[in-house]
Specification:
There is one protein chain. This protein is an alpha+beta fold and 212 residues long. It contains eight helices and seven strands, in the order αααββββαβαβαβαα. α1 crosses α2 and α4 packs antiparallel against α5. The longest helix has 16 residues. The chain binds guanosine-5'-triphosphate and zinc ion. Guanosine-5'-triphosphate binds next to α5 and α6. Homopolymer. Keywords: GTP-binding, Hydrolase, Metal-binding, Nucleotide-binding, One-carbon metabolism, Zinc.
């Protein structure tokens, strides 16, 4: 079954959604190489513009996928009414300010309301939004809101802990700092015990996020 927006670059004529051609993208990378002080025609760099564009295709594949479709297959489940938590989902995304990696972990929980979703689909939803240019706050909100909108559970909780390479490898250069964001909806927002149980489950139970 074809999913909306899952066109390969070949299917879409090698032209991205914005209309910028692959050729223009490669030229832009060549310009950056020159600007940095290198010779783009030297042997080691001659294939680099094409490689960078291919890498960007991977990094930003999330613009061509639809998270709603990913979550469309659900199963009726009335015998289980406790929270479901996927913790420590590896996060790799790119900061929209500097286009450098943000690396970390995502924890996703929800309280089902008669329907559950295949757990891999929750990971796929994280991936779709992560493969876009992001700030951590929007990424956190987008994941939670997509699950809430499609699955309509009693509650959703998303916590992200991540290190921003724009802060570790440049700028203020502070390794070891991580940013923690959370989006708690429904029962996780309204019920303090539910929130505590969730935070304990993901290993944030020392009160650090208790008042988030
Ligand atoms: N809130 C938020 N800020 C982010 C995120 N990723 C990067 N930033 C910040 O975005 C800001 C951009 O600030 P600017 O002053 O425009 O850019 P800059 O001169 O490169 O800033 P410095 O990083 O301080 O050198 C910086 O403070 C970054 O630390 C994010 O996910 N969320
Ligand atoms: Zn940044």
């Amino acid at each position: 079954m074809a999913r909306i927006g899952q066109l390969t670059p070949e299917q879409s004529g090698g032209v991205s959604r914005s209309g910028a051609s692959r050729e223009r993208a490669e030229k832009a990378v060549r310009t950056l190489i020159e600007w940095a002080g290198e010779d783009p025609d030297r042997e080691g760099l001659v294939g680099t513009p094409a490689r960078v564009v291919r890498a960007y295709e991977e990094f930003f594949a999330g613009y061509r996928e639809d998270p709603v479709e990913l979550l469309a297959t659900t199963y009726e489940e009335n015998s289980y009414d406790e929270m479901i938590v996927l913790r420590d989902i590896r996060l790799e995304t790119h900061c929209e300010h500097h286009i450098v990696p943000i690396l970390g972990k995502v924890h996703v929980g929800y309280l089902p309301s008669g329907r559950v979703v295949g757990i891999s689909k929750l990971v796929r939803v994280v991936e779709v939004f992560a493969k876009r240019m992001q700030i951590q706050e929007s990424l956190t909100a987008q994941i939670a809101d997509a699950i809430q909108t499609v699955l309509e559970p009693k509650g959703v909780a998303v916590v992200i802990e991540a290190a921003h390479q724009c802060m570790t490898t440049r700028g203020v250069r502070k390794p070891g700092v991580s940013m923690v964001t959370s989006r708690l909806l429904g029962a996780f927002r309204e019920d303090p015990q539910m929130r505590r149980d969730y935070l304990a489950m993901i290993g944030q139970g020392q009160g650090r996020l208790d008042s988030a």
